[in-house]
């Protein structure tokens, strides 16, 4: 390994130490520090450190073909210490600002969706529902009127025959018990039609 490669490896590993510190703070910011033991935190920590280890090995592989030396660990510790001393406070402020910005953008998007999509659709559905109710009411009135036109002559004929009732109401029927009276009514009705034709 040449001196240039060693120097590049130390520089890159120092940067990786800074990255590792920032990643740890970001991880704890989103998931929090567990107050008591939980298996979920253990699984999350396992995935986090496996991911960081694989990423670190990939970077080391690209720099010096994956050759591990003692100074590599020293460079990592130097970068991590540098982050804790100089960059931790700045990064946490930037991270909080990024979180607030993302939340604000999310809320704005939600409000815009409600304003330009949800509310117009809701208003349109209300209009369609109102039109359907008006249409159904109009159709019912037309059907009711037609039924009334059809049934009124029948009602009139039945009333002339001795049957009394109210349309779409409480039915009242009074049928003659005597066959003679029914025949008399029918005869009167026939006579009345004859007079009307004259």
UniProtKB/TrEMBL annotation:
Pfam family, one: Spore_YabQ
Keyword Isomerase: no
Keyword Cytoplasm included in the entry's annotation: no
Bilayer-spanning residue ranges: 6-25, 46-63, 69-86, 123-147
Gene from which the chain derives: yabQ
Protein name (database record): Spore cortex biosynthesis protein YabQ
Keywords, alphabetical: Membrane, Transmembrane, Transmembrane helix
Superkingdom per UniProt: Bacteria
């Amino acid at each position: 390994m040449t001196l240039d490669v060693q120097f590049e490896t130390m520089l890159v590993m120092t940067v990786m130490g800074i990255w590792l510190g920032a990643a740890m703070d970001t991880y704890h910011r989103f998931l929090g520090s567990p107050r008591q033991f939980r298996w979920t935190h253990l699984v999350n920590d396992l995935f986090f450190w496996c991911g960081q280890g694989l990423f670190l090995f990939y970077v080391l592989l690209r720099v010096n073909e994956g050759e591990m030396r003692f100074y590599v660990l020293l460079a990592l510790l130097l970068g991590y210490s540098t982050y804790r001393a100089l960059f931790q406070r700045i990064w946490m402020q930037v991270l909080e600002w990024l979180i607030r910005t993302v939340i604000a953008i999310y809320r704005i998007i939600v409000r815009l969706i409600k304003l330009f999509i949800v509310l117009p659709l809701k208003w349109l559905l209300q209009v369609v529902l109102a039109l359907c109710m008006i249409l159904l009411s109009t159709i019912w009135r037309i059907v009711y009127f037609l039924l009334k036109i059809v049934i009124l002559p029948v009602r009139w004929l039945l009333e002339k025959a001795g049957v009394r009732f109210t349309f779409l109401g409480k039915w009242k029927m009074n049928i003659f018990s005597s066959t003679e009276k029914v025949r008399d009514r029918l005869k009167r009705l026939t006579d009345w039609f004859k007079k009307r034709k004259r």
